[in-house]
Amino acid sequence: MTEDPKSFLRKLFDVAVDAAQPSLRVPGFLPEPPSGRTIVAGAGKAGAAMVQAVEANWAGPLEGLVITRYGHGLPTEQVEVVEASHPVPDAAGFAAAQRVNQIVQGLSEDDLVLFLISGGGSALMTAPAEGVSLEDKQAVNKALLACGAHIGEINCVRKHLSAIKGGRLAAHAYPARRVALMISDVPGDDPSVIASGPTVVDPSTRQDALDIIAKYALNVPAAITEYLASPSSETPKPGDTRLAGVENHVIAAPSQSLAAAKVVAEQAGVRVIDLGDLVEGEAREVGAEHARAALEIAAGDHPPTLILSGGECTVTIAGTGKGGPNTEYLMGMALELNGAEGIHALACDTDGIDGAMDNAGATIDPTTLARAAAAGLDTAAMLADNDAHAYFLKLNDLVLSGPTHTNVNDFRAILIL
């Protein structure tokens, strides 16, 4: 390869994002228009771009509402797009979710509901179950996000506190034909986990949700545990006739984006080791583990080599700083590499948002620790304070992509020269 390592890694990230764009992935999965109405409903960070792709490829009238994150909206013609808060829900998302719940009801077999579901939809489309307030849901979300729980655990709790998640939204649209197009941001691409599965029967139970709260010793409002103790909190299960016939299609997945980046890297003469899209764990620890793998390769004779991985790492918040899993991953890696020559890395979230910050992620190189020290930054102390955003901001190594209008989870690339 002849490119600058930092530019090369950024190009690979852009390739991964482009491979998951709704304009590319949506058209091939659209059903035939019905004889009745077509309602479009859903939520997620890719929501507005998915609506645009539907509108550009649909013959006939459309109506409906899709919720996306603040700053992720795009102009649409027939389907309304509403912006709301992520990752902690707000009143705008609550109000929009009520409207989504209403527009899918009262339909007939001649009608079609086209659900557009992508990562972030769980927090964006918040409709608390009866007896649970928006404030209760906000408190639970904050606690779950801070404790280091993985996305499957977070969404299990969310499902059992919701009036629409865990298959309930599709059940409300019965007996219309229901087709869900999903862009996956979860390891394993389980449709029941993507945005907490509003169109999918739920194999988890309310006892699972209670066990997760106990596992992390979460301090949640009394209304939460009281509601989960009630049978009414149980979600629709396999065999529920209201969800028979729902078509759930995962139209874009992390593995496809990793594959696209692999092709480009190999065309540049780089050997690729693909760790897959199921990588999970505490971000800084995974970063250190991947650093050790890179050092092992660097210690022997090797061609230019790229280690690719996807998935979703987590952060246990113990400090007062701001950041996200991708930047914490890189700080953990940088400390383990300790300035090793010839190793460069990028870690970014494909939605353009690392955690709740304005950056997609960041990059590191052999000079990272030395430049940090010269700038008066204590890498280990800032990592302990979860202050990854400020760290990379001062180093001018943040990756600022802006909203990408898709979301297939984290993209990590380590280049060993």
Write up this protein.
By secondary structure, the chain is α/β, with parallel strands linked by helices. The protein has 2 domains: 174 residues, glycerate kinase, domain 1 (3-Layer(aba) Sandwich), CATH 3.40.1480; 231 residues, 3-Layer(aba) Sandwich (Rossmann fold), CATH 3.40.50.10180. The chain is built from 16 helices and 13 strands. Strands 7, 8, 9, 10, 11, 12 and 13 form a 7-stranded mixed beta sheet that branches. β1, α3 and β2 form a beta-alpha-beta unit. The mean pLDDT is 96.
Features:
single chain, 417 residues, alpha/beta, glycerate kinase, domain 1, Rossmann fold, 2 domains, seven-stranded mixed sheet, 13 strands, 37% helix, globular
SSE topology string: HHEHEEHEHHHHEHHEHEEHEHEEHHHEE
CATH architecture of the largest domain: 3-Layer(aba) Sandwich
- Write out the CATH superfamily name of the largest domain: Glycerate kinase, MOFRL-like N-terminal domain
**CATH level-1 class of the largest domain:** Alpha Beta
Number of domains: 2
Q: Overall 3D geometry? A: globular
CA distance, first residue to last residue:
10 Å
